[in-house]
Amino acid sequence: MTQPPINIRDIEEASKKIEMLRTKLQTLNEQRGQAFFQLRECTLVQEELKELDDTDVIMKLSGPTLIQADLISATENVKQRLQFIENQIKSIDKQIDDTNAELATAEDVLRKVGAGQ
């Protein structure tokens, strides 16, 4: 049996999709790295806040101004920020998994199109 002719348009479309998905993965991995950096920063702040007592002065940067904050609200703000970042990382991880699955499918399609199947 002879194989059907290879459709160049299908190969180009599959290649473009693969390139787009790889770019998306790169962006997602960069976002994940930034989120982990923020998570580490907030964890360090949380550790520092645990060392303080009610008599210590806590300053918070708000825009270009430093304002005084109490220990309880500062601790709660950092806790909420940590939860937000952790949820953000989970969301990014899911997007990475979904994109990897989509990329594997697109690469499989390209192999089949390239093989003339």
> Roughly how many Å apart are the termini?
12 Å
User: Helix and strand string, N-terminal first?
Assistant: HEEH
Determine the number of helices (DSSP H or I, runs of at least 4 residues): 2
Q: Can you tell me the CATH architecture?
A: Orthogonal Bundle
Averaging pLDDT over every residue, what do you get? 91
Largest β sheet strand count, sense and barrel closure: 2 strands, antiparallel
Low-confidence stretches: none
Number of domains: 1
Strand content: 5-15%
- Quantity of strands, as a count: 2
Q: Strands of the biggest beta sheet: in what spatial order?
A: 1-2
Structure classification: mainly alpha
In CATH, what is the class? Mainly Alpha
**Helicity, in percent?**
over 70%
CATH topology: Helix Hairpins
> From the alpha-carbon coordinates, what is the Rg to the nearest angstrom?
24 Å
**How would you sum up the global shape?**
rod-shaped
Topology:
Layout: H1 8-50, E1 58-62, E2 65-69, H2 71-114
Antiparallel strand pairs: 1-2
Quick synopsis:
With about 120 residues, the protein is mainly α.
Task: Describe the 3D structure.
The structure is a single chain. The protein is mainly α and 117 residues long. The protein has a single domain, classed as Helix Hairpins (Orthogonal Bundle). The protein has 2 helices and 2 strands, in the order H-E-E-H. It has a two-stranded antiparallel ribbon. Helix 1 runs antiparallel to helix 2. The chain is rod-shaped. The model has no long low-confidence stretch (mean pLDDT 91). One of its GO terms (molecular function) is unfolded protein binding.
